[in-house]
Specification:
single chain, alpha+beta, 340 residues, 8 helices, 3-stranded antiparallel β-sheet
């Protein structure tokens, strides 16, 4: 290790995370490389001796083996420098009134449960409660290997169809909420230049519970990036200095995601959400609870009837389907370019 390794704490931490990820990947590969030949030998032995019990034992290990191989394949797909980054997730209600604010809060819970199940750490940066129910806005950071690589599959508008608990006549309502995921970038990832003259800063008192320190000073900030119109609000920290630093970090990740998505010709204006855009026809996934139960991703056609499990955080199959679809598109593109 170089003598000046720890002179830059952020860079050092980045190297250590990369090393830990590489070691974990190598251990997984070595483990599978040892297990697969062993299982093949057992399979041949069971066939020779016509041992049905041994055949069942080997067969029972195949689903877990297949899942581990699938996880490694997904890690291979997450090869971009930003994919391994932490993620910043922003949830904003759209069309649907109170139902939309309630739906936004349901999505917040879904993602927090998903992260918990995957061993990812979360920290809520900002959460504005709705009037009658739900939330007006929420923003949280997700920390862990490939947090952004996985969660960027959730970018877009999510639609809920159900019998509204807020309708006295028990009618069916449709509600929308947008999810925007940007990378929490290390300094060495990406080349995003943010000029001071392009920034408009405003300060205000934070809107948390009464009597807290954050309410007594103008610690909250509102940052507008003038060239793009992107607005970042931050009030999670106790000091204005900390909130400014967090807002700049979020803006940097947002600009990086915008540039990446534009390169793929798939960018949608999810970073300064407008209710009129978060409505019918723009959804990436539909969650139907009435008159039947189904969650369907409009991009991949992946679906399941177990809505309750999905809302409890079981969304990894949807994320896998999205990553596989993108990988197939990339392969098709490369094959096409090779044939020209």
């Amino acid at each position: 290790m170089a003598e000046d390794f720890w002179s830059d704490q952020n860079a050092a931490q980045g190297v250590l995370r990369e090393r830990a990820a590489a070691e974990e990947l190598m251990q997984s590969l070595e483990s599978l490389s040892a297990e697969i030949p062993d299982l093949l030998e057992l399979l041949e032995l069971a066939a020779e001796e016509e041992d049905e019990q041994l055949l069942h034992e080997v067969a029972s290990q195949l689903p877990q083996l297949e899942q581990r191989l699938r996880e490694l394949e997904l890690q291979r797909m997450l090869s971009g420098p930003e994919d391994k980054s932490d993620a910043i997730v922003h949830i904003h209600p759209g069309a649907g009134g109170v139902d939309a604010m309630d739906w936004a809060e349901m999505l917040l819970r879904m993602y927090l449960r998903y992260c918990e199940n995957r061993g990812l750490k979360t920290e809520v940066l900002d959460q504005q409660p709705g009037g009658e129910a739900g939330i007006k806005d929420a923003q949280f950071v997700v920390r862990g290997l490939n947090a952004y690589g996985f969660l960027r599959a959730e970018n877009g508008v999510h639609r809920l169809i159900r019998i509204s608990p807020f309708d006295a006549n028990a009618r069916r309502h449709t509600a929308f909420a947008s999810v925007a995921v940007v990378p929490d970038l290390d300094d060495e990832v990406g080349e995003i230049e943010i000029k001071p003259e392009e920034l408009d800063w405003q300060t205000m008192r934070s809107g948390g519970a009464g009597g807290q320190h954050v309410n007594k000073t103008e610690s909250a900030v509102r940052l507008t990036h003038l060239p793009t119109g992107i607005v970042i609000k931050c009030q999670a920290e106790r000091s204005q200095h900390q909130n400014r630093a967090t807002a700049l970090k979020i803006l940097r990740g947002t600009l990086y995601e915008k540039a990446r998505s534009e390169r793929e010709a798939a960018f949608e204006d999810a970073y300064a959400p407008d209710d009129k855009d978060i409505a019918f026809g723009s959804q990436v996934r539909t969650y139907t609870m009435h008159p039947y139960t189904m969650v369907k991703d409009e991009r991949t056609e992946h679906k399941t009837g177990n809505v309750a499990a999905v809302l409890d955080g079981s969304i990894h199959e949807f994320i896998e389907a999205f990553l596989l679809m993108n990988a197939n598109k990339q392969t098709d593109t490369e094959d096409g370019s090779d044939s020209i």
